[in-house]
Amino acid sequence: MAEDLRLRARLRALYHGASPAAVRFRYAVILIDLIIIAFFVAAPLMHHHGVTFYLLDYGVATFLAADLIARIIAYGDIRSWLKKPINWVDLFVLATLLFPAWLYNFGFLRVLRLWTLVHSEFFWRTVARRYDDTRIEDITRAASSLLTFVFVVTGFVYSSFAGRHDGIAGYVDALYFTVTSLTTTGYGDVTLPGVWGKLLSMAVMIGGVSLFIGLIQSILRPHKVTFPCPDCGLRKHDPDAVHCKACGKLLCIPDDGA
Predict the structure, then answer these.
(1) CATH code: domain of residue 20
(2) 107, 128, 149 - which closes a domain
(3) Are 13 and 19 spatial neighbours (Cβ–Cβ below 8 Å)?
């Protein structure tokens, strides 16, 4: 029992602490995560390497499993940890790595790891702590959502249509189709066949345009800080707000620049 408590305290210090050693540890984890995400993006081009690819696959699975177990131990309450949807995404990514023979068709969803990383407090407390709860955070989150959408759709198109349709001969063709559909350029030189192809094209246009507009809005709209109103609970306010615009409650928003 005492050893379990010491392990939990040690992991909590590493994952949530502010010491130089903890910060270096989190930087190393994030760097490895980015390398893994790059591997996920390149995986469709590497699958034909056979044994080497599967060795890398299980190596990545080992790291992700160890990381998730360590996070659960550091968090302390597994039931509460499992209530967070972002953690279920990471668990699904791990499942696609542990059971590639059964979940290979869902391998394109591994890129969601980029979304979970950039949307995690773990990332913002470490790499971007000076930009936490700023316009930079809003823009970065919106950009990561758009980029994740592009690569998830590209992976789906590649795994579903490459080799089965003349228009999609390789990964670059799938990426080209995704970008031209997302931007509604629609050159027409690469299209998907049948009713399902048309439905997918429309979904890419609607989803991509929505995310792109969200990115533009995060760049152009006035920034609001997160400061829950003690009376009505409104979370977002102007940085210089004195009263809550919903209920009129007097606010005292910390000014880090003062």
Answers:
(1) 1.20.120
(2) 128
(3) yes
Taking Cα atoms as reference points, which of 194, 196, 189 lies closest to residue 167?
189
8 A C-beta contact, residue 214 and residue 142: yes
Q: Per-residue DSSP letters for 235-253? A: -EE-TT-SB-TTT--B---
- Answer yes or no: do 92 and 156 share one domain: no
Q: Do residues 1 and 85 both lie within one domain? A: yes
12 and 86 assigned to the same domain: yes
Q: What is the pTM of this model?
A: 0.77
Encode the chain (258 residues) as per-residue pLDDT tens digits: 677 778 888 888 888 888 888 889 999 999 999 999 988 888 777 766 667 777 888 888 899 999 999 999 888 888 888 888 888 999 998 888 888 767 766 778 888 999 998 888 888 888 767 776 677 888 888 999 999 999 999 888 888 887 777 777 888 888 988 888 888 777 777 778 888 888 888 898 898 889 888 888 888 876 777 778 887 877 777 777 777 877 877 777 776 544
Q: How far apart are the C-alpha atoms of 203 and 233, rounded to whole Å?
A: 35
Which residues touch 48 (CB under 8 Å, ≥6 apart)?
A: none
Examine the domain organization and report whether 139 and 239 are in the same domain: no
Taking a C-beta distance cutoff of 8 angstroms, is the pair 253, 239 a contact? yes
Residues 54 and 91 in one domain: yes
Q: Are residues 14 and 116 in the same domain?
A: yes
- Burial profile 199-219: b = 16 or more Cβ within 10 angstroms, e = fewer: ebbeebbebbeebbebbeebe
Q: How many domains does the chain have?
A: 3
Range of the domain at 91: 1-128
